[in-house]
Amino acid sequence: MLEQLAPYGSSIIGLMVIGIIILVLGPLVGAKKASAAIKPGSEPEQDYGDASYRLHRAHLNAVENYSQFAIPTLFAMLLGVSATWVAGLVWATVIARLAYTLVYLQNIGKPAQSVRTLVYVAAWLFNVAMVILVIVAVL
Questions:
Q1: Taking the CA of residue 121 as centre, how many other CA atoms within 13 Å lie in the half-sphere pointing to its CB?
Q2: 126: left (phi over 0), alpha (psi -120 to 50) or beta
Q3: pTM over 0.85
């Protein structure tokens, strides 16, 4: 089994990079909420001008999208989909997720239909492509 995953080392690292982003954002959110006296489990006021709200939302978005990214990627590896294609899509997604997080945290563009939307849609399209590769591999 481990030999089958060897060609996907780069993709596995990509999965871990997204996991690290989530792991880093979590405590940052907690610290930001604590410094703003926001109760644990509560959400900051919905205000894109508030850094704690943007940090909270960036973290939630990363968590919400991780399974949609990781599960098809793992299936692609187990099904033997081209390691080159998998790695390309994984790293394109990693870059898009990093860009999304930075754009969100820096409050670049409008809350909707701006740069943040573009990088979100890019990551979404890479995920859709991975799902298609898995479906084709199964057929």
A1: 7
A2: alpha
A3: yes
| Cα gap 16→56, rounded to integer Å | 21
Which pair of tokens denotes residue 94? 């990693």
The residue written with tokens 């780069």 in the block is 10
Instruction: Look at the block and give the residue holding tokens 């799902």.
Output: 131
- Give the C-alpha distances (Å, rounded to integers) separating 17 from 33, 70, 73, 109: 24, 11, 14, 25
Interior angle at CA 128, CA 97 and CA 118, nearest 5: 45
| 137: CB partners within 8 A, 6+ apart | 76, 79, 80, 81
The band of 1, judged by pLDDT with boundaries at 50, 70 and 90, is low
As a whole number of angstroms, the distance between CA 139 and CA 126 comes to 20
Distance CA 24, CA 47 (A): 22
What does the pLDDT look like over 86-139, one tens digit per residue? 999 999 999 999 999 999 899 887 777 789 899 999 999 999 999 999 999 999
According to DSSP H, which parts of 37-114 are helical?
51-78, 83-106
Specify the residue for token string 């670049």.
108
